[in-house]
Amino acid sequence: MLEVKKAAELLLDSTFAIAFTGAGISTASGIPDFRGPQGLWKRYSPELASIDYFRKDPKGFWEFYSFRMRSLFNAEPNRAHYALAELERMGVIKYVITQNIDGLHRKAGSMRVIELHGTMLESYCTSCFKRYDSREVLKMIDRGELPPRCSCGGIIRPDVVLFGEPVKDIEYALTIAQESDAVLVVGSSLTVYPANLVPQVVKQNGGKLIIVNLEETPMDDFADLVIRGKAEEIVPAILDAVKELVSNN
Ligand code: NAD
User: Fold this and answer.
1) Ligand 1 within 6 A of CB of 187
2) Which of 11, 89, 111, 156 is spaced 20 to 30 Å from 137 by Cα?
3) Residue 172, SS3?
């Protein structure tokens, strides 16, 4: 595929390429995205994952959220996550900046990961800030402790950015984006602000913008390359094309 080879060339021509990923990279791992055809918000209201709802009804919040968490603990990275980790080991990609909270990039072996929306794998007490492995929290819920409480009595929450809360590490991510001369966007609708500033900043600074997504995104017109397809097929193909170009030089 010509486009895949072009993506590999753009990455190899850059000196500081980064990946920016969204929920679409994890759908092949069995985790539904939000806005795609099978999206979570087609079945549930986003209100359920908001800070207001957590404050108003922590029991109801955890009833919904523990269901999401359980599906994540059973999920494994797919070929797209592994391919990005290998591109990092090869020195082709310097950072993965993700909107995902599933922890699958780290599980696949990516080392430099910025999780703008936090991680579901960890939780913490809202009173004393003691940290918990979310697996422990799920066990509390299994024992009927709803909402789950810390030993100090405080209510525990997941370490994720809920609707109505500011994202984490955005300044850091934007600093990395300023340094970057190419961004490979994978599986993001690019509609969630301010995370979507990351690819915008790279492009505005003269860097290359490569988009791999099943559906159109609002940034397709600004992109240097758009590949319409499945992340789990396209990203490993880009990795293969990179390896081939490297071995031919
Ligand atoms: P999104 O749901 O808005 O968009 C996902 C995009 O991925 C869609 O445009 C869809 O067409 C595309 N897509 C779906 N499957 C794909 C595949 N196999 N290959 C390529 N593209 C595919 O997701 P977003 O842009 O990440 O923003 C939504 C928010 O959802 C983020 O804030 C994130 O925190 C949260 N979220 C995270 C997870 C997760 O951690 N895995 C899951 C759902 C939602």
Assistant:
1) yes
2) 111
3) helix
Of 98, 131, 133, the C-alpha closest to 112 is 98
Distance 189 CA to ligand 1 centre (A): 6
Q: Which string of DSSP letters, residue by residue, matches 27-69?
A: GGGT---SSSTT-GGGTS-GGGGBHHHHHH-HHHHHHHHHHHH
In contact, 18 and 202? CB cutoff 8 Å? yes
* pLDDT at 192 > cutoff 80: yes
CB-ligand 1 contact for 200 (6 Å cutoff) = no
Look at residues 113, 102, 111, 40 and name the one whose alpha carbon lies nearest to residue 77: 102
Query: Is pLDDT above 70 for 39?
Result: no
Give per-residue pLDDT as tens, 86-132: 999 999 999 999 999 999 999 999 999 999 999 999 999 999 999 99
Question: Does residue 81 have an active-site annotation?
Answer: no
Query: Is residue 77 in contact with ligand 1, taking CB distance under 6 Å?
Result: no
Q: What does the pLDDT look like over 43-56, one tens digit per residue?
A: 567 788 899 999 99
Ligand 1 atom with the smallest distance to the CA of 35 is 2
| pLDDT tens digit sequence for 130-169 | 999 999 999 999 999 999 999 999 999 999 999 999 998 9
